[in-house]
Amino acid sequence: MTIEQQNNIIRTLKEVDGETVQYILEKIGMDSQMLRQLIMTMPLESVHAEIAERFELEKSLSVRLTR
Predict the structure, then answer these.
(1) Tag placement on the chain: N or C end, fewer CB within 10 Å?
(2) From residue 13, how far is each of 22, 33, 43 by CA, in Å?
(3) Could you list the pLDDT tens digit for every one of the 67 residues in the chain?
């Protein structure tokens, strides 16, 4: 793949939303690798904040389902 082709892909991807990027990563089998890369390179405080948010979401969903 040429640099020009790569740049065209990047320009196109700048216009899509997060769910679409997630879908693409899943379809090409890179979602787990991307998650790992992000976790390993993000500041630890950010990783903790994201995990805490996920736990809160799960807690909220389980409360709603039990009502």
Answers:
(1) C
(2) 11, 19, 25
(3) 999 999 999 999 999 999 999 999 999 999 999 999 999 999 999 999 999 999 999 988 887 666 6
What residue type is 60 in one-letter code?
Answer: S
Cα distances from 44 to residues 5, 17, 21, 41, in angstroms, run 34, 25, 24, 8
Full 3-state SS string of the chain = CCHHHHHHHHHHHCCCCHHHHHHHHHHCCCHHHHHHHHHHHCCHHHHHHHHHHHHHHHHHHHHHHHC
- Cα 28 to chain centroid, rounded: 14
